[in-house]
Specification:
two-stranded parallel ribbon; Spore Coat Polysaccharide Biosynthesis Protein SpsA, Chain A; alpha/beta; about 240 residues; 7-stranded mixed β-sheet
């Protein structure tokens, strides 16, 4: 496919339960869009039937599969998908569709000349939360945001799984990124900020998935350590 407008990157890890529910929705949605789209599923070392399910559906939809045996983390998976992409824009989101597919249309409508990074946010006045997280998860998320703001001051929601990068931003950010797990979102935005790439935040509709695999306390403490490492990486010149 030539002149691809959007590359859609979807990282998956042990998703044999959710994939059959959502893969038809995802593929059929992008088949009917007016944009030229490539879909890239990145199998992050799943140990269940995820790869077999992807392969079976690929016979129907002919998307791209990137797969490797050892689980490396969501950040690593997104990075592999972005670096293999060919679209003018790279969008990644979660297979649980916590951010509805229809938000892609909003994204397309809001893209403007000069945009480099566009991220969905659950914490803007026009955002709509349909199913909320627990109070504990919400509080810890706010704490992570405040700490991340020491590196990227303007962003109000780092971890919403709906982000878009221009081809220029992909070429600058993803080869330099090093964080493989929970803090990877903040690193992508931090590297972009260091290279003076503007970040646009757009409100999205979002619903917490009760089947979320994220162990929130583990994720927060790992992310804090990774924020510290990001600053070290910057001081060592690794993001230049």
């Amino acid at each position: 496919m030539d002149d691809i407008n959007f590359s859609i990157v979807i990282p998956v890890y042990n998703e044999e339960r959710r994939l059959p529910k959502n893969i038809d929705k995802i593929c059929q949605f992008f088949l009917t869009t007016h944009q030229k789209v490539e879909i890239i599923f990145v199998n992050d070392g799943s140990t269940d039937q995820t790869l077999a399910i992807l392969s079976a559906y690929n016979n129907k939809y002919n998307f791209k599969i990137i797969s490797y045996q050892k689980n490396q983390g969501k950040g690593y998976a997104v990075r592999q998908g972005a670096l293999a992409s060919k679209g003018d824009w790279v969008v990644f989101f979660d297979v649980d569709l916590a951010t509805p597919l229809e938000e892609f249309n909003l994204l397309v409508e809001t893209l403007a000349p000069g945009d480099q990074i566009v991220i969905g946010s659950r914490r803007l006045p026009a955002s709509q939360i349909n199913v909320r997280e627990s109070k504990t998860r919400t509080l810890l998320g706010h704490c992570f945001t405040k700490l991340s703001n020491l590196l990227v001051p303007s962003v109000v929601d780092f971890t919403c799984g709906f982000k878009c990068f221009s081809r220029t931003a992909v070429a600058i950010i993803f080869p330099r990124a090093r964080i493989n797990r929970w803090g990877f979102d903040a690193e992508l935005l931090y590297v972009g900020t260091l290279h003076y790439l503007p970040i646009k935040q757009i409100p999205v509709s979002w619903a917490h998935d009760a089947d979320s695999k994220v162990k929130v306390f583990q994720a927060i403490f790992s992310s804090l350590w990774e924020l510290f490492n990001m600053k070290l990486n910057q001081l060592r010149g690794l993001y230049k």
